[in-house]
Amino acid sequence: MSDVRIFQGNQIGGCVTVISTQVDGMVHRIMIDYGSSLPGSDTIEDFEYPWEDEPVDAVFFTHYHGDHVGRLMDIPADVPLYMGETARAVMINIQTALSKVPNEKGHKRELEVLCDDKRVRTFHFNGKFYDHVSEIPGFKVEPYSVDHSAYDAYMFLIEADDPEYENGKRVILHTGDFRGHGRRGKAMLPVIRYYVHKNGRKVNTLIIEGTMMSRMDEKVKTETEMMYEAADYLKEHKYAFLICSSTNLDSLASFYQAAQIVAAPFRRYLYTYNEYFRVQLQTFSNTAGSFSDVYQFDNVHRLCLDKELSSHNWERTMTQKELMEKTGFLAVIKPEEWCEKYVEPFVEDYHAGKIDQMPVIIYSMWDGYVREYFEDENGSPIDNKAKNPEWIEFLKKQEYNGVEVKHLHTSGHASLQMLAGVIKAVAPTDEIYPMHTEHPELFEKLDIGEYVNKIVEGDHE
Ligand SMILES: [Zn+2]
């Protein structure tokens, strides 16, 4: 007998899936993701998985966002961890940076775990698809790459031994977080058609994310549309600061490419507020960049406005700020007080007549972090638990100083249309478990015909 349990499925983030089966009377389990609830979710404290009473054979991570990997250190040390190779490198970059903060022993330990080749097992691409993981008794796990705001994200097709199902296997598809409107999003439906349904294989159970169910009014644009919108904006604004997640490769590529389109035939430099961000971009150039030039970030420099620069083409040395004012720039900052020192000198130079344009800020993260409150259907304000007061303050202050803040973002999650498309393509025979959603009941409103009857709501513990 196999069993699927989902913990904290009725919230965005922190969802955990445990699948169990039996081999020769012994129970074996795999877990998918063990992350933390996102700020703003209703969960005050994450549930503790009963590791001793119900041990798991392995944990598989769909991608590196904190709501999926955040509690990695709570997993007992003898449990192997499966993840993407680049996802691992990105997580190592994060923990390397965090462990440099004095007294941060926790991050040093996490870094050691991530670097432990015995414990961490990465998916191997064989040129056509990722090798299947078959070493866990009772399970075969097939990782398939999906498009998400985290790079190197996966969905998992799992065959669990179960004599009650056809061929003695229960087939479960766990989508993780995904979307159809990113650069690689178009591949998802063909992957389902040709790999998931290979040789007529049917999926019994579909576990699918539904983040956008609570953001139904959010317009979903493609990454390419956003890139051209950014290029139009950068054409008018030579001095642009950017607020974007260091691990959202596709959006970083959209803005970087937009800056290059505008500067052609020259290159526009990208500046970052710290070394960590630069290293992360380097990792992406070395990995994703080897598949496509879109993901190549050249000419990336750390912000240090007073730094003296020289070149054999120049008659005199220039400070970094002078060079930035001469050539234009795209500079990544954080919406925190200490980053004011990067924006203000350009505002001052504008008022002093040294440059002819004001700097601008492009905000490319979820709007929920910087909104005082949300509105219900009647337009009445509802408390926004996800807001970040420091960020709101930062942006307000910049706008007060006359700096335009442009919101330009696209979601990392599947649109309602994409969710319906995936459900119909997967055609689950038995049940659909919505997860990563505050509104599983809205799945019934999707255009999915007969599959509506297969939706099973609620935490499945
Ligand atoms: Zn995610």
How does the SSE layout of this entry go?
Elements: E1 3-7, E2 16-23, E3 26-32, E4 58-60, H1 66-69, E5 81-83, H2 85-99, H3 105-114, E6 120-122, E7 139-146, E8 153-161, E9 169-174, H4 188-196, E10 205-209, H5 223-236, E11 239-243, H6 249-263, E12 270-272, H7 275-286, E13 300-302, E14 308-309, E15 318-319, H8 320-327, E16 329-332, H9 340-351, E17 360-363, E18 373-375, E19 381-383, H10 389-400, E20 404-407, H11 416-426, E21 431-435
Parallel strand pairs: 3-4, 4-5, 5-6, 9-10, 10-21, 11-16, 11-17, 12-13, 12-16, 17-20
Antiparallel strand pairs: 1-2, 2-3, 7-8, 8-9, 14-15, 18-19
Bound molecules: zinc ion.
What does this structure look like?
- There is one protein chain.
- The mean pLDDT is 93.
- A 6-stranded mixed sheet has the order 1-2-3-4-5-6.
- The chain is of the alpha/beta class and 461 residues long.
- α4 (188-196) packs parallel to α11 and α5 crosses α6 (249-263).
- The protein has 11 helices and 21 strands.
- Helix content is 26%, strand content 21%.
- A hairpin with a 5-residue loop joins β18 and β19.
- Bound molecules: zinc ion.
